[in-house]
Write the structure tokens for this entry.
Amino acid sequence: MNDNVRDVMCPSPVTLPASASLLEAARTMREQDIGDVIVLEGNRLAGILTDRDLVVRGIAEGRDPERTRIGDVCSRELTTIAPDESVSQAVRIIREKAIRRLPVEEDGRVIGIVTMGDIALARDRRSALADVSAAPPNL
């Protein structure tokens, strides 16, 4: 029953280079209907950029969305998890670190991302968090 992170993660998360602009990231999020992108420097994980980062660290600070690079505003102090770790371990990390998204790394590459919503959907499809996570976006 969905015992490993690999069983519940979203595989192949959307990535952008750290040099991409805030505008490019915002458009990517809109087109892909997602709330975050993995930020890469080369092929290595450099950070994660959320829709909240775009607003709080970008727009609200008066940064130019066409000129500001996502590498300048993304969260860089990341915790990751291996795909073969238990879902219980993922939950423990999410709670301890008070984070919503946990990149999944294997052999130095990001291969997925697991969220509180992914775990809720896998463990209890009737929970309020699972309902919210499964609902279509309200654009």
